[in-house]
Specification:
- By secondary structure, the protein is of the alpha/beta class.
- It has a single domain (3-189), classed as Beta Polymerase, domain 2, CATH 3.30.460.
- It is 40% helix and 13% strand.
- It contains eight helices and seven strands; from the N terminus they run ααβαβαβααββαβαβ.
- The strands form two sheets. A five-stranded mixed beta sheet has the order 3-2-1-4-5.
- Helix 4 links the parallel strand 2 and strand 3 (95-99).
- Helix 1 (3-15) crosses helix 3 (40-50).
- The radius of gyration is 16 Å and the shape is globular.
- It starts with a helix and ends in a 5-residue tail after the last strand.
């Protein structure tokens, strides 16, 4: 399959998850700049399809990244979080909204390593600790969707978990990959070099 074919299949399986569909239908209404639905809810829907399970099974939360460097206060981010809480309340799932411009302010305290400044949501997406999980979808404003997949789709479909060298948290790779393998045992963890 070509990369375009893989992207089409990825979108088909991500949209099979009714919560992904609903969030993306409403994402522009959040009023947050550079907003993307990212990570677990996307690739885990694909892995569930591989197992013949319902798309929503074992998905802990639905993450939305946005980027707004104009106000780095927690209060400004909290306003967007509260808008998201109201916008997605009826879905009955946890939706976590985070301003990527603020990530370097709290990242080290939370994850034990500093995070370099981020210039946009796509840069945040490309830093997840497992390469094949670096994925995002957003409405393109023209009735379609833009996809961010800096490392492509093949490893995600093949269940290959590799450490992402752009991640500032290599010490989290084994626990994160192990957590995925516990839920989807067919996944393959590629040991970190060195």
């Amino acid at each position: 399959m070509t990369e375009d074919d893989l992207e089409d299949r990825f979108l088909e399986l991500a949209f099979a998850n009714k919560n992904n569909r609903a969030i993306l239908e409403r994402l522009l209404d959040l009023g947050a700049p550079d907003a993307w639905l990212v990570a677990g809810c996307l690739y885990q829907s694909v892995w569930n399809a591989h197992d013949g399970r319902p798309p929503e099974v074992d998905i802990k939360d639905y993450d939305i990244f946005y980027y707004d460097a104009s106000d780095l206060s927690y209060e400004a981010e909290d306003e967007v979080i509260k808008r998201g809480d109201a916008l997605f309340a009826d879905l009955g799932v946890e939706v976590e909204v985070r301003n990527q411009a603020r990530v370097p302010l709290w990242f080290e305290q939370h994850f034990g390593a500093p995070s370099p400044p981020i210039s946009g949501s796509a840069e945040g997406i490309e830093r997840f600790v497992v390469e094949c999980t670096c994925l995002g979808i957003r409405p393109d404003g023209k009735g379609g969707h833009a996809v961010e997949a800096p490392y492509g789709f093949q490893d995600m479909f093949d269940g290959i978990l590799r450490y992402n060298a752009k991640s500032p948290t290599p010490h989290h790779f084994e626990s994160k990959a192990g957590s995925y393998k516990a839920r989807w045992p067919w996944l393959t963890i590629v040991p970190m070099a060195g």
